[in-house]
Every structure is written in structure tokens, then in C-alpha cells.
Amino acid sequence: MLKPSLQTKVEEGFLIGEFWDCRRLDLKPVEELARVFESHLAHGGHPELVIDLSGVEYAGSTVLGTLLRMQKMAVSRGGLVILCRVDPSVREPFLAVRVEGLFRFVAELEDALALARERAAARKARGQDGANPGRARQGLSTITRRAGPLRRARRQVNSNPEPGDPSPEGVSSGEE
């Protein structure tokens, strides 16, 4: 009988998680990886996380929440979760709930490490070392605070609505 387990190692400052004897990816080892990744970040490790899914044949949607949490931790520090050696059946839940675009999928572990090195070098060139999450968040929050022309137009339209007035043509009020 297989005893699924998580194996982690740090290579060039990047955390690599592998699931051994794990045909079905369950929540427990993924949550364990999240704890290890959080500790890795707290100790100044690179915010790129490489997850090697070789041997995993099935991943249910229950693990997606934890994977998304790890992705959020990585992105908040300028990093990314990179999945490699992913079986097509394992990728299905990502496609079903339309979150595959939040992760990077690569064929081999070497490709994942090359991408992680590239991202770390780019972050270093921008002056963001990943160990200082405030700098990465600061840049992100500046972007999210800006209001584009469409958002400004919606604010102007919705700023003084008259009771009973129909919403302007082409702008939905959300009440239908």
C-alpha cells in the first residue's frame, strides 16, 4: 500500500515540493507544503515555489484552495507557483474552475527552475528581492488603486442616482 508523503528541498534558494507515492493528491500533504512554504518565505527564501507533480494522477478541487493560497503568498512577494510534470487529468480541475492562468505549468523540473531563476533575476533587477514583501505589495497596491476611464465613468454615473431613474443605456445597475 502506498504511503503518500511530501518531500521538500531547497535548490538555489527555491523551495521544491514533491509528492511521493501519491497517485491522488489529497489536502493533507498540500497543506503541509503550504506550511513549509510559509516558513521558507519567513526565513527569506525566494517566493517562487516549484511543485513537481510527477506520479500524481488525480487532484481534486479540494486542493485548489490551498494551492491558490500559496499562489497568493508567492505573488504578494513578487513570486509565482510553478507546476511541473503535470498529468493532463491533474490539470482538469484547474481548467474546470478557470484558475489555470494563475499558475505556470511547465514540462520538466529543469524548466521550472529556469523560470524561477529568470523571475528572481528580474525581481532583483527591479530592486525587489522577495525577502521584503512590502516592496512587492507596494507596487501592486499602487496599480490596484488607479481608476481607469471605465471605472471613473461608472463612479460618475452612479454618484448621484435619482430614485426611480432607469440606469443609463449601456451601463448596468446590477438590478434586473
From TrEMBL:
Top-level taxon: Bacteria
Matching Gene3D superfamilies: STAS domain
Domain called STAS: residue spans: 1-116
Positions of the UniProt region annotated as Disordered: 123-176
Pfam families cross-referenced by the UniProt entry: STAS_2
Sections of the chain in a coiled coil: none
GO molecular function term, any single one: anti-sigma factor antagonist activity
Name of this chain's protein: Sulfate transporter/antisigma-factor antagonist STAS
Species for this entry: Isosphaera pallida (strain ATCC 43644 / DSM 9630 / IS1B)
